[in-house]
Amino acid sequence: MRNVDVCIIGGGPAGLAAALSARKEGIENILILERETFLGGILNQCIHNGFGLHTFKEELTGPEYAARYVQMVEEASIPVLLDTMVIDISKDKVVTAISPQAGLIQIQAISIVLAMGCRERPRGALNIPGFRPSGIYSAGTAQRYVNIEGFLPGKEVVILGSGDIGLIMARRMTLEGAHVLMVCEILPFSGGLKRNIVQCLDDFNIPLRLSHTITKIHGKYRVEGVTVQQVSLDKTPIAGTEEFVACDTILLSVGLIPENELSRKAGLKIHTTTQGPLVNDRFETSIPGVFACGNVLHVHDLVDWVSQEAEFAGQFAAQFVKLGSQISRLLPIVCGYGIRYTVPTTLCIDSMKTLTTVRFRVTDVFKDYYLDVFVGQVRVSHQKKRIVAPGEMESILFKKHWLDSKTEDEEITILLQKE
Amino acid sequence: MFDVLIIGGGVIGCSVAKYLSEYQLKIGLLEKASDVCELTSKANSGIVHSGIDAHPGSLKATLNLQGNQMMESFCKELDVPFIRNGSLILCFEESDYPDLLRLYDQGVKNEVPGIKILNQEELLQLEPNLNPHVYAGILAPSGGIVDPFKLTLMQAEVASTNGVSFFLQTTVFYIQKKQDYFQVETSKGVFQAKLIVNAAGIYADEFNNQVSNHILKIIPRKGEYCLFDKQVGSLVKHTIFQLPTPLGKGVVVTPTTDGNLLLGPTAYDILDKEDISTTVEGLKFVVEKGKKTIKEVPMSFVITAFAGLRATEANGDFILGESQDVPNFFNAAGMESPGLSAAPAIGVYLGNQITTKLRAKKKDHFVTRNKSVVDFDKLSLTEKARYIENDHDFGQIVCRCELVTLAQIKEAIHRPLGATTIDGIKRRTRAGSGRCQGGFCSPRILDILSKELHKDPKEIAKSSEQSTYLVGLDKELL
Ligand SMILES: Cc1cc2nc3c(=O)[nH]c(=O)nc-3n(C[C@H](O)[C@H](O)[C@H](O)COP(=O)(O)OP(=O)(O)OC[C@H]3O[C@@H](n4cnc5c(N)ncnc54)[C@H](O)[C@@H]3O)c2cc1C
Ligand SMILES: Cc1cc2nc3c(=O)[nH]c(=O)nc-3n(C[C@H](O)[C@H](O)[C@H](O)COP(=O)(O)OP(=O)(O)OC[C@H]3O[C@@H](n4cnc5c(N)ncnc54)[C@H](O)[C@@H]3O)c2cc1C
Q1: Residues B241 and B305 in one domain
Q2: pLDDT tens digits, residue range A70-80?
Q3: A235 touching B, CB under 8 A?
Q4: Please, which residues 253-312 of chain A have a Cβ atom closer than 8 Å to chain B?
Q5: Domain identity same for B159 and B190
Q6: ipTM given for this complex
């Protein structure tokens, strides 16, 4: 069995940033395990630009953004095992992986950083009735076919879901010679970034059908069309609004799910909303010494936030190696009105940083609300928010002194209020 | 000239083929799909029924019981996953209790072993996630679950190894009775045979009616399902029925042999034999009914939905054996439930009649055993290490949800009757049947299929030839 101080699972942007910051903290014995034959994660298939505005203050493509981190990891001579898939993590932090060349490997780690990313929600999760022909792809699968393999998976395309990946694929499919008929979105607003709606749909005259969904898939062998239907606010299809749209391809961009099979097997507590592990302000999960960051923790819209978050996770993982657990009294963060989830879900009264970023998503579109933070009965922050939407991750800088002289039986509440 | 031509590569056609393959006969099997197990045999509940609810004295009752008894050793020989997890049949109102007792009596008449009436407390002890308002139930310990794909495939492979010729993508159009043989017109030309086995599932009536005056009419009765992620696969241990209705056994909640949770089916008659689509109403119905059986239906864990068609014939029983007015024309028609459970017994039942009729002798050499593609996921760590050492392709994970390796995909392609489609790989290895439903692995499998079969990637299909994935290269259409 190999001994490693910080073992990083997944070599996407999260894993790479975590490795770099652990090294900065002085940890020599680091190992990154990546199942693909290259580093960089899902960014490798995101060949559009718009990455890195925050991190590098310039617009990069996904592969370019990844390449910068890969280069830094190489310069720091951090060991990497590629083509190596982790199949098990035990409670006592033994990592089991397999690879064609090295066979079965076991690693005893002091700290583990989970950075496995996420996967796409399949059609089944939507339960769209109809046939099960070929021609139905998750947007990421189509992205892989087009951007990595060089194949076009369809000609006449309807996209379901207006998240960023759906929007980006609408443009990509068009550029590669397909005809994108429409993007349907069940909600009355798009889940994607505004700039993507303009640059990926408006610029190509692709209609965005808000409050519409696909209610039936036609075609026994290959998709022959879809029934598109308007929905009411509670997402139920409105009778009489059915419209048949002939197409041979459906792209589903209906959400991402953190890839936490390993975490579940290891017995980590999982957040029912994010489907990522529950973490405290040190990105430490319910098993001391196991940290999580990036899309495995919660789904991010921007890779820049992934890198930022992972840097902290790497730092805390390194501190765990040097000092052991730093966790003592934890205060829970409660989601009040309008708040869907927060990451972290607990803050450590004693060891938290003077400033800690708490990320969250809201449940709906809210205009002109105040974001309030309470500790116990005391309001410690009151910020005006002109507009917040579920599609864009929000954050608040939490100040350690807000917790001065607080005890464990109090709780922190974050909520939206009109006043 | 064939001695025997079997029409249909479902579980029934393949069971008969396997049985007959041990005899000195020239046998062909005609199947219109690109693989065996592409119709009803792939879309059912996968339950090996105890035989409690079949009408006493019917073929269904007899063959169900025989099939159930044979299943364990049969599956062991063929390396087919089978679990005798026991079935429960529940009633929820005191007023339904007499019906439950009647069913129990019928079970006794059918000689179903070990059945017991359980009260609420006993039921909840066995299955803590049941609806706490359950009133009473029957436990049938002999009930089980089987992998319906493997039950069909493993038999087909044995038959193929023993010399049965499988003609896939071969649609039978018309059967004509000649003097002492049958002429069979197909999409791949004309075949001739001394004896026909009509195992065409929902289409069996058409072929019967082409040659016989005893007209059959098969009405497709649709059954829709929701399949759930393995994470909730152990919500129940038993296969759980509600009291049967005139239309069928009602909505079942059951684990599958792969460890998923299955909920369904609906039961309603339709007109179109090609209509295996799922519907809003159907899916809603199974969920509603499921809520009666278990405390909570874990909707956020649904990974897919599907539908199958029961071959319902007015007569109500299996129609098995030689046609009354057409010698050497054997029917396996009206094979609705418990067709899967009875399949091994039906192979023997029909096979026996046929070998007697043809006075066929056993071959000197034939195989009876089969070994499935190895299930890497289930190997111990040391075994995994050994497998990878011997073949590096075992170290290459292709389907990450089900942990299926490159070595398994390649083996599935190169076995007897190997996979040629994405669905074919899925049924042989489970690659693509996990929670991401092929999102991650299907491009990879497509690539492997195209390389191993030396085919253009554009030709690789999901199942039938028309169900291809790729339309061209990037920018090719511009
Ligand atoms: C399809 C898609 C399109 C996107 N488009 C944009 C965009 O336009 N702009 C933007 O800013 N962001 C975009 N994102 C988001 C951005 O790419 C992600 O936020 C970022 O890549 C997440 O980084 P990560 O390291 O957490 O995950 P990933 O990049 O997914 O990396 C996870 C890595 O872990 C590896 N791994 C997983 N499990 C194992 C295991 N068991 N063993 C070994 N290795 C394992 C994976 O192979 C992968 O390399 C997109 C995301 C997706 C999925
Ligand atoms: C919803 C549902 C649930 C069920 N649940 C259970 C259960 O839990 N337990 C149980 O015991 N039984 C169950 N059954 C019954 C069981 O699935 C069937 O009895 C069994 O699969 C029938 O097998 P088969 O070979 O007769 O039919 P099929 O599998 O349909 O095979 C017939 C084959 O004939 C081929 N064919 C048709 N026409 C032509 C043609 N013109 N030319 C060439 N080939 C042709 C088809 O392509 C097909 O492959 C269920 C059935 C349904 C529909």
Answers
A1: yes
A2: 999 999 999 99
A3: no
A4: 261, 264
A5: yes
A6: 0.91
